[in-house]
Amino acid sequence: MAERTERCSGCGRQIFIAPPHAKTIHCQVCGRVTRVRSPAGPVRHAKNWFAGLISRYSKTVSVLYPPPPLPITTQYNSPSSTAISNLRPSTFPSVHGRRRALLIGIAYKGKRYELNGTVNDVKCMRYFLLKSGFRNEFIVVLTEEERDPWLVPTRKNILSAMRWLVSDCQSGDSLVFHFSGHGSQQFDVTGDEIDGFDETLCPLDYETNGVIIDDEINEIMVRPLTKNVKLHGIVDACHSGTALDLPYLCRMNTRTGYFQWEDHRPSSGAEKGTRGGGLAISISGCDDNQTSADTSALSGNTTTGAMTYAFIKAVESDPRLTYGGLLLAMRNAIREANTGFNVNNGGAISGFLKKMFQNGLTQEPQLCSSEMFDVYRSSFSL
After folding, report:
1. With 60 as the cut, is the pLDDT of residue 356 above it?
2. What's the rounded Cα separation, in Å, for the pair 113 and 110?
3. Is residue 202 flagged as an active site residue?
4. Structural domains in the chain (count)
5. How far apart are CA 234 and CA 124, in angstroms?
């Protein structure tokens, strides 16, 4: 059995779990006792367990974009290996579309760590991109609801779709990668992470076929970008701050708006930027040491990822938005969700809900880039 670790809830240090099935760990540095999470669960939190209660007492927020009609939900049965070998990803659009997107939403249906907002995130993002000028035939969607086995978000299919997204990119292309699902971390074995951890995305079959680490994401989607090609990675998952493994992280003080770029280039000299002079920018749901949330608090009765909803709301609210303005608007939206809802009475239930809610959404969206720029002078555009 592989060694397992848990992050101390006091000082944040990673501690080996011994014995392997221990339910708690004791930090020898700060003395804090931390509950050990399920092996399958360093993942995005779902807030729906009290959504019904919240909806009765919180102010309703109108959804800014009507979601498209729900598709017919099908039960996906994994085809045999022989059947898969005879299939080709013919549903991937032929290149070349000047603006194309890959949208991935994984609910992990039937698992104890199932998510409720991820497929909604993809539907909303697709609708948003269509309104923004993207053509439907150049948007690839991977969810468990898809009938085509190549469009089910397994590890193999996600990697294939990533390669399609950046294949034959040419000057002037705009590419969008959106992932909504579980994210995690693992020990960095290559020495290219300043905090000692690789960030990972969890495909539908990650328990059997493994996660996708940020090194792979960078190699497949960032390095091939040629001059004047722009890639936006929008990642709504836990531990997603540097999910594209880009060399620069924008550290911003939300209260003052002051920012500075943090250099994440490894001392080994390993390259994390683009080979051909393109630009890669990631907008993520939280910092590497934080978790992202599913919640209905931002969009009324519809469960979405907090980050995805805040992103779309910010961009639709101000078409002249800069990258700095976008990051601040997203953080403010999530902060207001913690403190800005109204209740119908001032009794004990009100205080209980407010305390619970304020302890819930603690994520801070992050901005990373393959090159440094003035985030208040550069207009955001897809």
Report:
1. no
2. 8
3. no
4. 2
5. 13
Among the options 8, 45, 178, 182, which is catalytic? 182
Q: Please give the pLDDT value at position 191.
A: 81
CATH classification at residue 58? 3.40.50.12660
pTM: 0.73
Question: What 3-state class would DSSP assign to 207?
Answer: helix
Known active-site residue 182: yes
| Same domain assignment for residues 120 and 14 | no
Predicted confidence (pLDDT) at residue 261 exceeds the cutoff of 70: yes
Residues 127 and 8 in one domain: no
Long-range contact pairs involving 126-130 (C-beta distance under 8 Å, separation at least 24)? 126/68, 126/101, 127/65, 127/66, 127/67, 127/68, 128/65, 128/312, 128/315, 128/316, 129/101, 129/103, 129/176, 129/382
Single out the catalytic residue among 8, 124, 238, 286.
238
- Alpha-carbon torsion 356, 357, 360, 363, what sign? negative
Q: How many CA atoms lie within 13 A of 147 on its CB side?
A: 3
